[in-house]
């Protein structure tokens, strides 16, 4: 079963194209994490928040990622992190066109 990880935290920037350039290497390393199927990067310059929605192949790999990512964010001075793991209801997600075709094998 696959799991969604929702993460958000306060961030004073950068955002937009500047964020994309600054975090390009980080994005590449995140893509290499065990069990990660994809990540959607989220940002809100208006509220100074950033984070992501991740899809992991198991709850175990999502939990491992939270532990590692929390340590990495702490190195950037970010210590308050909201993280939640959710199982996916594949039948309802398929009705609403969620990107789950790749999940058929999981």
Automatic annotation (TrEMBL):
It comes from the Bacteria. Transmembrane segments: none annotated. This is Monooxygenase. Keywords: Monooxygenase, Oxidoreductase. Pfam families: ydhR (PF08803). GO terms for molecular function: monooxygenase activity. It comes from Lysinibacillus capsici.
């Amino acid at each position: 079963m696959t799991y969604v990880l929702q993460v958000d935290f306060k961030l004073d920037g950068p955002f937009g194209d500047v964020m994309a350039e600054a975090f390009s290497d980080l994005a590449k390393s995140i893509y290499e994490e065990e069990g990660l199927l994809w990540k959607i990067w989220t940002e809100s310059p208006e509220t100074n928040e950033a984070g992501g929605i991740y899809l992991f192949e198991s709850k175990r790999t999502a939990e491992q990622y939270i532990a590692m990512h929390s340590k990495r964010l702490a190195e950037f001075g970010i210590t308050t992190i909201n993280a939640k793991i959710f199982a996916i209801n594949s039948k309802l997600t398929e009705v609403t066109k969620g990107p789950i075709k790749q999940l058929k094998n999981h």
